[in-house]
């Protein structure tokens, strides 16, 4: 009995630390005051009106959306075959490939890589937006490869062999039999990777340059100049959109078992 | 030329480390041949080599006059049934069965008729719209069977198809498989580690051990006249006692164990025929080929009871005779332990093998 009471307290504290910041952000976004304060005074929707009218947020939102989608799709297009090869076959250098593509533990190390990439961009003069796209694709691999690998491991290899013995080529068997059964894993990978890209700050910081920024970078820049609840309103919008997307995908595809 | 011929096959999962070495097997059309053996004996490797999921490093695979050796699995006309059914989870029964027909470009209008016929054959008419998850284990295995026979394969390969089913269902499915085989006369190769399955279904049994064939023959041959100590043990000659060869004459072999003479009237293997009196040998017999008595009968060894195990119709005994522990299974209730017990084995139930 005593133990369960302690458990309840720990759980409550956990929830407080996890959800507390969200509550503060959402509450302050409805503030009637001109500066960020907690608890907020008054109620207004002015910050929401304001955020929708700031053009740099609109343009950077589209930049983030485009980069997120492009990088996620690329990481999936390359990540699915990599995951498939790693789950199904043994080959020389497999553990190295696994280490590179599926271990988020080495992602922080990539920051160094991006200083190098920055140099690479400087030398080769490729457009900033392409640099952002390449960088984001690289950090999304662990998410796509890991999640897709997990759903492939749950799928019985015999089913694929059955399809082949019935006359499918290995490629046809993949699309006719494997793909329909790992769809939700792929959807989970998509959502996880897209959210990761959309929210990423450190990599984008290295790779943005004059005239091009992603939404989180723009928010950071804005906050350096103005300390008003506009950012809270924008954050609240992003939180709500994220919750809606994840919930919708869970309802339709049951993605939670892959995350 | 036989219907299926595997000649000088080297095959395995790692190149240069074949599980099958110089493997030969011939199967006639319409036969049901079981590959029987413990796990790791190469029976599944043999099956996968025929199916094409393992490419033989050496040798030749011929089925129905067609050279299968270098053909990829999807170009071989082979039906496969797996232990865990391997149905397509996202397709209903109809689409599962129709899969192979569609891959073979069978005219769309013919498909419903063919699927209907084969579902009737496995007694699953009316289940077309069900998903695999909505079927019982036995029903799933019937769908798997239907799916693999509807394409009219050159042969049907079954990899322990009944081991995931419970005992009662297994018996039912065994009868069903037997019926199907007689009805459609398809050649089948059946992998199992269950001797009862192999004995009841097969026209011939191939007993395998470590990639080699120990014995090939009809079920009675395998069960009654095992050719090697390995086969003897595998088909239930669980008891083995060491002794010395005393004399050998036409149809009668005498072995001395613990100073007593035991007679065997069974045919001897070549390796035993080469032995001389005085050489060490081993005798094999089944636990249920024993008679227990408190007086000394013919072909008898003294024994002491370690423990008894009442099983209803029969009683199992763990016995000790001259330091060797043996098992006996005898009809009836456990006998009273008077301290004086003899176990006797009929001369035609005793196998003599080289030690």
SSE arrangement:
The complex is a heterodimer of chains A (259) and B (355).
Chain A: H1 2-29, H2 46-53, H3 55-88, H4 94-102, H5 107-124, H6 128-153, H7 157-165, H8 170-199, H9 202-207, H10 215-225, H11 230-253
Helix pairs in contact in A: 1-11, 2-11, 3-6, 3-8, 3-10, 5-6, 6-8, 7-8, 8-11
Chain B: E1 4-11, E2 20-27, E3 32-36, H1 43-51, E4 58-63, E5 66-67, E6 78-81, H2 93-103, H3 111-121, H4 137-149, E7 155-159, H5 167-184, E8 188-192, H6 195-201, E9 204-209, E10 212-217, H7 219-224, H8 229-234, E11 239-249, E12 252-257, E13 260-264, H9 270-273, E14 280-285, E15 290-293, E16 300-310, E17 314-321, E18 324-331, E19 341-345, E20 351-354
Parallel strand pairs in B: 3-8, 3-9, 6-7, 7-8
Antiparallel strand pairs in B: 1-2, 1-4, 4-5, 9-10, 11-12, 11-14, 12-13, 14-20, 15-19, 16-17, 16-19, 17-18
Helix pairs in contact in B: 2-3, 2-4, 3-4
Task: Give an overview in words.
The complex is a heterodimer of chains A (259) and B (355). By secondary structure, chain A is mainly alpha-helical. Chain A has helices spanning 2-29, 46-53, 55-88, 94-102, 107-124, 128-153, 157-165, 170-199, 202-207, 215-225, 230-253. Chain A is built from eleven helices and no strands. The two termini of chain A are 33 Å apart. Chain A has two domains: 1-44, no CATH class; 55-258, MetI-like (MetI-like fold), CATH 1.10.3720.10. In chain A, helix 3 (55-88) crosses helix 6 (128-153). Chain B contains nine helices and 20 strands. Chain B has helices at 43-51, 93-103, 111-121, 137-149, 167-184, 195-201, 219-224, 229-234, 270-273, and strands at 4-11, 20-27, 32-36, 58-63, 66-67, 78-81, 155-159, 188-192, 204-209, 212-217, 239-249, 252-257, 260-264, 280-285, 290-293, 300-310, 314-321, 324-331, 341-345, 351-354. A six-stranded mixed sheet of chain B has the order 6-7-8-3-9-10, sandwiched between helices. In chain B, helix 2 crosses helix 3, helix 2 runs parallel beside helix 4 (137-149) and helix 3 crosses helix 4. The longest helix of chain B is centred in the middle third of the chain and has 18 residues, at 167-184. Chain B is elongated and about 80 Å long. Chain B starts with a strand and ends with a strand. Chains A and B meet through helix 7 and helix 8 of A and strand 6, helix 2 and helix 4 of B.
